[in-house]
Every structure is written in C-alpha cells, then in structure tokens.
Amino acid sequence: MAKETLTVTDNRTGKTYEIQIDQGAIRATDLRQIRVSEDDVGLLSYDPAFMNTASCKSAITFIDGEKGILRYRGYPIEQLAEQSTFLETAYLVLHGELPTGKQLEEWVYNITHHTMIHENIKKFVDGFHYDAHPMGILVGTVAALSTFYPDAKNILDTANRQKQIYRLIAKMPTLAAFAYRHSLGLPFAYPDNDLSYSGNFLNMLFRMTESKYTPNRVMEKGLDVLFILHADHEQNCSANAMRSVGSSHVDPYSAVAAATAALYGPLHGGANEAVLRMLREIGTKEKVPEFIKKVKTREALLMGFGHRIYKSYDPRAKAIKKLAYEIFEVTGTNPLLDIAIELERIALEDEFFVKRRLYPNVDYYTGMVYEAMGFPVEIYPVLFAIGRTPGWIAQWQEMLLDPEQKIARPRQLYVGSEQRDYVQIEQRR
Ligand code: CMC
Questions:
Q1: Annotated active-site positions, please?
Q2: How many domains does the chain have?
Q3: 337-375 per-position pLDDT tens digit
Q4: Potential cystine with 387: which of 147, 230, 258, 281 (Cβ 3.0-4.6 Å)?
Q5: Are residues 372 and 411 in the same domain?
Q6: Is 95 found in the same domain as 28?
Q7: What's this model's pTM, rounded to 2 decimal places?
C-alpha cells in the first residue's frame, strides 16, 4: 500500500524530508524542521486569506464546493430545510445529533425563556442615531451583553457555557428587532413566549396595537427555513473571526460581536443587502447587458455571485429560489425578480463567469424574499446573523474543546525595513 507521506527535497541544502499526510493535509509545523542553518526558524507556509490552509478539524459542517453539497452533521441541507425547524437544526449543529422529543422540548423551552433582555440594553439602543444601521446596533449591543453576564467569562465550565448558549440564541432576535423598531421610532415589542422562534421574531418586528400578534404561517415557516439555510457554513470569514477572537478565551458575547462585525461586510453577509441595491440600480431587465459589461470591465461586482468554496450552484441559493416562489404566492411577486433572473441567465452563459465558475450564492435571492416579506433592506444582514448564531457558537465550542487549538496567532513574512536609527523631525525629508 502506498505510504501516506510526502517526500520533499530542499534544494538549498539537498536534504530530504518525509512528512506525514493525514486526511489529505500535512501539518504546517512539520515544515519547521526544514532549515538551512541552526538559527533558521524553519520553513513557513505562506497563505494569504487561508486559500489552502485548514485551520482546524471540524465535525460540524461538510461542504463539497465542486458538487454543490452542504450538510450539517451529515444531514443534507435540503432535508433539514424541508423537514426540520430552525431550533431543532440549531440543536443538531451544536450537539452533533438530532434531539429526541424530550431533548427538543427542553431546548425550545430554555431558549424561549431567555428571549428577554435587560431593560438597560434598551437605553443603549435608544442612544443610537435614528438612521443607525441595525448591524452596527447589533454589534454594539451583543458586545454589551457581556457586561450584563460577567459569569460568561467562565468559558471552560460546561453548564455555564450552556447558559450563555441559550441566552445568545434567544437574545439575538430580540436585539435585532429592537434595533429595527428604533430605526422606525416605534416602541419596542416584547417577546411572546407562546410563539415559535421565527413567529416571535416577526411579533417583535411587526406587532403594532394588537394585544396578541398572530404571525402569517407562510412567513413564519419561510423565515424559519431561511434561518436553517444560514445556520452554519464551516470556516467562513465570520466563523473564523469567532474562533480567532474566542481563542483568546474572551466571553462568547464579545466573540459573537466580532463574528457579527465580520458578517457585516459586503463580501460576506452584507452581500444580500448589496444585491438588492444592485438590482434597484440596474432598474430594468433591458439594462442587464450594460451592467454585465461593467462587471467584466471591473467597474462593478456582481453581488450575490461567486464563492470561495462553491464552484457550482450554491445549494442554499437553489433552496431559496424555490422558497421565493412559495413566498411570492402569498405576497405577490417582486418586480426585481425579473431582473435577477435575467442577470443570472446572462451571467451563467457568459464566458467571464463560466471561466471563473461564478454561480449565484446564498445571498442572491434572499434579498428579494426578505423584501417581499416586508423587511427593510438594512435588516437583511441582521437576519443572516440570527440564523448564523448557532453555527458561530458551535464553532467556538468545538475550538474550546479541541486540545490541539491554542490562541490563534498566524506568522508573517516580514518585508519591511531593516533596523535604522531614529531621525529627528528637523532632519526628515
Ligand atoms: N463579480 C465579478 N467577478 C467576480 C465575482 C463577482 N461577484 N466574484 C469573483 N469574481 C472574479 C474575481 O474578480 C476573480 O477574477 P480574476 O481571477 O480575473 O481576478 C475571480 O472571479 C475569482 O474571484 P476571487 O475574488 O479570487 O474569489 P474569492 O474566493 O477570493 O472571493 C467572494 C469570494 C464571495 C468574496 C467573491 O466571489 C465576491 O466578492 N462575491 C460578491 C460578494 C458576495 O456575493 N458575497 C457573498 C458570499 S456567499 C455568503 C457569505 O459568505 O456571506
């Protein structure tokens, strides 16, 4: 049988080394033995943006970007989207197994009974400008939660960690809804424990004067499915932020704030908002070819297209496209859909996109669904953050419990000046 090793020869010294291969990877630290002299720190691997570096072993999410496969804990995303609920999926992502009836009941009960936030948090939300972006408010308020729960610092205690997990999954929608109501100048709507996770979120967003809010079943289910589709996505930018910040052993609220900040960017979770703005800017189907031309001359990015891992159709985008039609049956179609479909059609035939294997990603159709559901555009990344919270926490917990993990601290290749002497200001040019 062939050996699971790699043999490399260092042509600088003529020495040969045999390096172990495990699960298709070599350990970067095994390269350290490759040295030209005693004082050489050893060979480093250089990998900006982690293009080819596995930063951890993970049992949470599997993606095959070539085949367009996404599974949480082994379960295909399509089956979970069709048959599970968001809270059940969150349990699965965090615990590794689907819950029994009793486990699910307890899980849902505990999350439902942690949805309230301290009244003082409302004062923070009130302090934001009326047009503050809800993602900015979310980053700030979730970080602030750490000051309300100082016990959360005790991250190595299992029971304590579990309590913060309930709190985080439960309170993210409350913070998000309060941020939204603030932007409209509406009074905050408190959680309703009789409703489902998604139903309650709709309640906190949209309840007006009625004493009891009844969510529209299609919207409630649709939102739940969208949350499922966003629950985890292995080592993406925000999960990496969560792991990296969490590796300093900070409390999970601070780490989730960092992950939320990473998600805010237009190349990550901010893309759903950017897609909608792009479609509005294009304006009509007829202007699509003109926009495509701009993308090809690098004057614009086709937002909602392309992915570091998927080199075929993102399975989440497929599921959301299907869901969009179900939602539109209730809400009426979104006029931007025609532009999106035309844009997708042209892009998928165009050599520029074909050659680079650029396909719609999860963010391409979500904006249109959210708009049809009555969400304002600024809140789209916030919806992504709520869905992604269980994934972030699962990644964080896996990192904490992994004996191989340490504080994240990459190396660098220094390309700056050699030592030089300080120059007095009058002598500088
Ligand atoms: N529009 C036009 N060209 C693109 C796009 C796009 N959306 N995405 C990639 N390219 C080009 C890119 O310019 C490059 O071309 P070349 O090789 O000629 O320089 C090539 O395709 C490879 O792209 P890359 O930038 O090296 O790929 P990456 O893996 O570094 O970036 C990405 C992945 C998602 C950041 C990028 O595709 C992108 O900016 N997409 C638009 C933003 C977006 O939709 N983000 C959501 C991602 S999915 C959900 C999430 O993670 O939150």
A1: 268, 307, 363
A2: 2
A3: 889 999 999 999 999 999 999 999 999 999 889 988 888
A4: 230
A5: yes
A6: no
A7: 0.94
